[in-house]
Amino acid sequence: MTGIPHTYDAPVHIAVIGGTGIKSLPGFTVVATLKIDTPWGSPSSPISILHHNSPTSGKPIPIAFISRHGLHHELAPHEVKNQANIAALRSIGVRTIIAFSAVGSLQEEIRPRDFVVPDQIIDRTKGIRPFTFFEGGMVGHVGFGDPFDNRLGKIVRQCGHSLEGDGVRLHDKGLLICMEGPQFSTRAESNLYRSWGGSVINMSALPEAKLAKEAEIAYQMICMATDYDCWRGGEEEQVNVEMVMGHMKANAENAKRFVAAVLDELSKEEHAEQILAKHLEFQMKFAGSMTHKSGRSKEAEAKLKWLFPGYFD
Ligand SMILES: CSC[C@H]1O[C@H](OP(=O)(O)O)[C@H](O)[C@@H]1O
Ligand SMILES: Nc1ncnc2[nH]cnc12
């Protein structure tokens, strides 16, 4: 990437995390590529800073973009650098994340290529992924009753609805099952999740959403259904990578239009407070201060001070 600077001087408040089939956001001007080292290592990919013109002020708004599985999809779901991704984004000023995910549908009415803006998650990961910033000598607990940010979700849903009828079908709510993978589910598991009321299934929402919550970042995932997992039909209908990639590719234009519509909306001045997630600011200053200074491990304290400058002095 010759000629593109590796620094960007202004804070960046909005980020997009791209998933399967979305390794970049074409149509936006790349103004910088950042390689950020965090106490949790390097992110899944360099962070691209894109310029997006605000529809109201006409001014360029910077957007950060990370490719969750790496630039070449080399990271399996359990290998995604979730802590580094979220820490690096927070360090450049990000307080709003729109995350994109290819999901299996657990309900007949959610058809392949439909979009779902989920409002709940059930954790079926197996505890093998690093899932918190608060460990190793500093304890913190954050509420996770609403895993997605309700205010951001409302904006995302409105944008999705504005595209409806134009090749976009949107389901306003949904229970997302996040499984461990990388193997897909057994039919018994798929039916179990359906009996729990699951709408869609992926392998990526967690711990991404938990870490975003700990980092005081408003987070909403946009899901696109690519298959009916394995609960419906015969063997030939079962999910496979070809099926997922086929639907992702065929509907990539709509996925990118959806993301662009959300970025357009978030770039309006009326959302200035929202994109800074002012309603979440300072919650970890208290929630992360459980461990008395005298009992903190120096290493944990140093890492958390990097993530939250001024919180734990
Ligand atoms: C390629 S199918 C399984 C894979 O697809 C989803 O990826 P992402 O959420 O990053 O779009 C799912 O979570 C799995 O990682
Ligand atoms: N059926 C499925 N299960 C888990 N993750 C997926 N991503 C896309 N389809 C999926």
Describe the structure.
Its main location: cytoplasm. This protein has helices at 82-91, 150-163, 187-195, 208-214, 241-250, 252-266, 272-275, 283-287, 298-307; strands spanning 14-18, 29-34, 47-53, 60-67, 96-105, 115-116, 120-124, 170-171, 175-179, 200-202, 218-227. Helix 2 (150-163) packs across helix 6 (252-266). The model has no long low-confidence stretch (mean pLDDT 95). A hairpin with a 6-residue loop joins strand 3 (47-53) and strand 4 (60-67). 27% of the residues lie in helices and 20% in strands. The chain contains nine helices and eleven strands. It has 313 residues and is an alpha/beta fold. Strands 1, 2, 3, 4, 5, 6, 7, 8, 9, 10 and 11 form an eleven-stranded mixed β-sheet that branches. It has one domain (14-248, 283-307): Rossmann fold (3-Layer(aba) Sandwich). The structure holds ligand LNRAV4D5 and adenine (ADE).
Structural class: alpha/beta
Number of strands: 11
In total, the number of domains comes to 1
Query: By CATH's scheme, which homologous superfamily applies?
Result: Nucleoside phosphorylase domain
**Bound ligands:** ligand LNRAV4D5, adenine
Give short descriptive properties of this protein.
27% helix, EC 2.4.2.28, alpha/beta, 313 residues, binds the ligand CSC[C@H]1O[C@H](OP(=O)(O)O)[C@H](O)[C@@H]1O, binds adenine, Rossmann fold, globular
Précis, in short:
The chain has 313 residues and is of the alpha/beta class. Helix content is 27%, strand content 20%. The radius of gyration is 19 Å and the shape is globular.
